[in-house]
Amino acid sequence: MLAMQYSFTLPADYPMEIIRQRIATAGPQLDNCPQLMVKAYLYALKGEHGAENRYAPFYLWNSSQGMSEFLLGQGFVGLTQSFGWPQVDHWLPWLTHFDRAQLSHARFASIERRPIAPFSNLSRLRSRQRADPLALASVTAFDPAAWQLLHMRLWRTLPARCSRAAQWYAVGHVSAPFDNSAAPHSL
């Protein structure tokens, strides 16, 4: 399993309706994508979700093959032709928890990246990770190249206490293509 995200920072005066329309059109195309567990179409509006306009989809792939096939495919080619060549960040999931039946209710997302201190006890760090019981989805993953811990959460409403360290997004669409849509998933 792999978590993946790329992000495009857009000009301050960029008409974000273009992004919302792109999500409305492209979102359902990945609803049946093989090896995709979840894709959250995320965007941030300057002043509402942070200091910049952004388009930043987040993926949870069942395998590296699924991620590779997506990056080699025409959808990604079209994306790069529209917005440029992004850095594609990816992480190894330590914890995933989501109920596919609830994902369509996600309206907000938070992504927080934290450094992992050198010589940390990774087993202990992993064992301390917990799903947020108020979130519709929780993914905790790590990047052993940058020694970074990632926390991604999907929310129905903004939580009462919003982490200032997190980047906040609106959720335009969630693709979760497996047949067992009523079953919660945990790793």
Description:
This protein is an alpha+beta fold. Helices cover 21% and strands 37% of the residues. It is built from 5 helices and 11 strands. It has helices at 17-26, 64-72, 74-83, 100-103, 122-127, and strands at 2-5, 8-10, 36-44, 53-55, 58-61, 89-99, 108-115, 137-143, 148-155, 167-175, 184-186. The chain has an 8-stranded antiparallel barrel with strand order 1-5-3-10-7-9-8-6. The longest helix is centred in the N-terminal third of the chain and has 10 residues, at 17-26. The radius of gyration is 16 Å and the shape is globular. The model is unreliable at 179-183 (pLDDT under 50).
SSE arrangement:
Layout: E1 2-5, E2 8-10, H1 17-26, E3 36-44, E4 53-55, E5 58-61, H2 64-72, H3 74-83, E6 89-99, H4 100-103, E7 108-115, H5 122-127, E8 137-143, E9 148-155, E10 167-175, E11 184-186
Antiparallel strand pairs: 1-5, 1-6, 2-4, 3-4, 3-5, 3-10, 6-8, 6-11, 7-9, 7-10, 8-9
